[in-house]
Amino acid sequence: MVSFTSLAEEILVSARRLDEHLASNNLPSSSFDHDTLVDLPNDVEVARDSLINTTQTLKQLAQGGVGRAMEIAFSWTGLLSLHAIYSFKIANAVPLNGSTTYSDIAAQTSIPESFIRRFLRPAMSSHIFTSPTYDTVAHTASSRLFVTLPDFHEGIGLQADELAPVAAKTVDAVRTFNDSGEPHETAFALQNKMPIFEVLGKYPERGRRFGAAMRCYTKGEGYDLRHLIEGYDWGSIDHPGAVVVDVGGGHGSVSQALARSTRNIRYVVQDLPGTIEQAKKELPADEFAGRIEFEAHDFFTDQSVKGADVYLMRWILHDWSDGYCVKILRALVPALEKKKESRIVLFEYVLSEVPETRLTERMGPDLDMIMLAVFNGAERTRREFESLLQVADRRLRMTKFVKPEGSAMSIIEIALEG
Asked: Are 169 and 369 in contact (CB under 8 A)?
């Protein structure tokens, strides 16, 4: 059992470390108007995470059982506030510096002033916008991002405009489809009358927003590709004739990053025909001549490139249910059989084996709910990945598991043994 006092003392230690960092770097104290805790050294980042997690624990203990549950139950009201801010472009009606009036915002957005006040109150309770006086509104560090970071704006929009309605259909989808695992039998499909990939292909604007939101969500240290580059021993295969197949590699951004950090490896980026045609047009040909090539390939069918050194899949399996993941893995087995040293390398978010209570680890369970509702996919634990391997082919073995320091993602190496 912990006491409120002991938790408060832990918080004080972390808070002092952050203050020391700000003071030693001549940075102003943190405020809700401007963020100062950016690009932190690793030890300071650890202190910030500790402060966040311990403060959350202290708050939840003080709330009690009812308070903790009700905070989640009423969280939709905050999302409603953000939805209004996104849809009516309220942030654009407020000057980046200085303030404006509620009536001016109402005039610019054509939304009644009373609604503007009501929509902004829940956001302001989390320091998204502020009201210096009864009649005025000003930006804070958070609200300013709606204007200065377009991808942030679209990231909020995707959650509020696209995913929130889908979330409301998830229980119905489970009742209707049970655990079919089919990508067209999801909450998203119930809401939109078609699965996610069809929607993104049919409606370019929604596809554009989805892409911008993904850039927003994966921006930052935790998702930096350097963790994949530095966390795996690519040097051991960086010799003439070596081949890495980037399975489901999209436009080849991962292969480009790896090619810049190696000298000899040839990369084959595989994806569906439409994606590959676009990727060919975008590749800086002079920089990657002879290093990167493209091939149309369906990863549910037998791998066409036999005996490559590595078959790389970055954030592929989480899009799919267990049955489809087994098909993807089985399709690689004949290619692995051609060369004993061939490996599969996964770069995936791996959940903790037991449910996490740390606020800084909240992203994993949140992503898992999104994958369920939208794709019928899943974020998985290490044990669940190992189970997939055994079902796909009992000869598949997890030979390495690494979560690089500072990374949200883990690297899993798989070999075909026996």
From this structure: no
Structure tokens at 63: 């709330």
- C-alpha span between 297 and 250 (Å, rounded): 11
Residues 229 and 207 in one domain: no
Category of 220 on φ-ψ map: left (φ > 0), alpha (ψ -120 to 50) or beta: left
| Interatomic CA distance for residues 293 and 252, integer angstroms | 9
Within 71-180, strands assigned E span 99-101, 136-138
pLDDT per position as a tens digit, 291-327:
999 999 999 999 999 999 999 999 999 999 999 999 9
92, 105 contact by CB (below 8 A) = no
Report angle CA 414, 402, 417 to the nearest 5 degrees. 20
127 a catalytic residue: no
- Distance between CA 230 and CA 237 in Å, rounded? 14
Last residue of some domain: 49, 73, 97? 73
Q: Which two tokens stand for residue 278?
A: 């676009």
Q: Is residue 313 located within the same domain as residue 375?
A: yes
Residue written as token pair 């972390």: 14
**Of all residues in the chain, what percent are helix, strand and coil, respectively (each to 5)?**
55, 10, 35
pTM (2 decimals)?
Answer: 0.91
Question: Residue type at 111?
Answer: I
307 and 287 in one domain? Answer: yes
Q: Which regions of the chain are under pLDDT 50?
A: none
Residues 287 and 226 in one domain: yes
Q: Are residues 104 and 241 in the same domain?
A: no
- Is residue 336 exposed (0-12), middle (13-18) or buried (19+ Cβ within 10 Å)? buried
82: nearest Cα among 140, 148, 151, 156: 156
